[in-house]
Design goal:
- The longest helix has 28 residues.
- The protein is of the alpha/beta class.
- It starts with a strand and ends with a strand.
- Strands 3, 4, 5, 6, 7, 14 and 15 form a 7-stranded mixed β-sheet that branches. It has a 6-stranded parallel β-sheet with strand order 10-9-8-11-12-13, with helices on both faces. Strands 1-2 form a two-stranded antiparallel ribbon.
- It holds the Pfam family ADH_zinc_N.
- It is an enzyme of class 1 (oxidoreductase).
- One of its GO terms (molecular function) is acryloyl-CoA reductase (NADPH) activity.
- It comes from Tepidimonas sediminis.
Length: about 325
């Protein structure tokens, strides 16, 4: 028997409960993992609450992230006792995910846990940090092609007090960039500066409809917000700059014009963390293991028990959670 959050949809309605399940309920896969930690991401919160049709088959164990130890493997790349990490691949949406004490998964979805990271560290980073690393990698490749050196101008991070934003601030500052953090939580200014932000601005300056072209400021942007915020970020990006878009906290819409792209040569990169190829994933995780230390993660994340995740989901959706929530599935 193992404990898991289980989402089901019946004639009585949609609901998520803490359940005890038997191993024969686990889905098909080459590798069985004893999960140590998972996380509570925005997508997980949508799945748990049912506020968006994230889950595409029922019943479903949510959890798009997990870290743990291989118990059994039919794939020679993974051996019992090996520590592994997983993000994305539709886990928690179409295949049972990490908010459980056990998981059975396709071997192609797993990565060895990078040296220097514990399972807790990996989940304090989670999909949020992994996505932040993908964004930073896209911007750095763009800057390298343009001959732009770190410190050449301001880099904007929106939604900076959230999981993606806070880790993007850390990675960019560590690489020598001057980071401007945008947030709706002014009480987090000291924390964001401790992560490396040189300046903190109110998200209201970006959240309302703006002009198609605005004063040039940013050499790059990591945007986890979307909607008017993304449109304004593009409109104020410097000639030849780049924007990495990975989120929709403000909205799925993009109320912009083509002006920044055809008059200033701005590049908009769409960052997908779910289906990113293995080589890109490995590079992102190696970067995170190098640049995000355990002490930083302790300030970024707090740990909750598996049973607490259901009640915490609405807080995640409402933006009331700073940084990351790590879920101890065995607590």
């Amino acid at each position: 028997m193992f404990k898991a959050l289980l989402i089901d949809k019946t004639d009585a309605g949609y609901g998520c409960t803490l359940a005890e399940l038997t191993d024969d309920r686990l889905p098909a896969g080459e590798v069985t993992v004893r999960v140590a930690y998972s996380t509570l991401n925005y997508k997980d919160a949508l799945a748990i609450t049912g506020r968006s049709p994230v889950v595409r088959q029922f019943p479903m164990v949510p959890g798009i992230d997990l870290a743990g130890t291989v118990e059994a493997s039919e794939d020679p790349r993974f051996r019992p006792g090996e520590a592994v990490v997983l993000n994305g691949w539709g886990v928690g949406e179409v295949h049972w995910g990490g908010l459980a004490q056990r998981a059975r998964l396709k071997a192609d979805w797993l990565l060895p846990l990078p040296a220097g990271l514990t399972p807790w560290d990996a989940m304090a980073i989670g999909t949020a940090g992994y996505t932040a690393a993908l964004c930073v990698q896209a911007l750095e490749a763009h800057w390298a092609a343009q001959g732009v050196a770190p410190g050449s101008g301001d880099v904007l991070v929106t939604g900076a007090a959230g999981g993606v934003g806070s880790l993007a601030v850390r990675l960019l500052a560590r690489a020598g960039h001057r980071v401007v953090a945008s947030t709706g939580r002014p009480q987090e200014e000291a924390w964001l500066r401790a992560l490396g932000a040189a300046e903190v601005i109110d998200r209201a300056t970006l959240a309302a409809p703006g002009k198609p072209l605005q004063k040039e400021r940013w050499i790059g942007v990591v945007d986890a917000v979307g909607s008017h915020t993304l449109a304004n970020a593009c409109a104020s990006t410097r000639y030849g700059g780049a924007v990495a878009a990975c989120g929709l906290a403000q909205g799925l819409d993009f109320p912009a014009t083509v002006a920044p792209f055809i008059l200033r040569g701005v590049t908009l990169y769409g960052i997908d963390s779910v289906m990113a190829p293995r080589a890109r994933r490995e590079a992102a995780w190696q970067r995170l293991a190098r640049d995000v230390d355990h002490a930083t993660l302790e300030g970024l994340a707090r740990t909750i028990a598996l049973a607490e995740a259901i009640a915490a989901a609405p807080d995640v959706l409402a933006g009331r959670v700073r940084g990351r929530l790590v879920v101890d599935v065995n607590a």
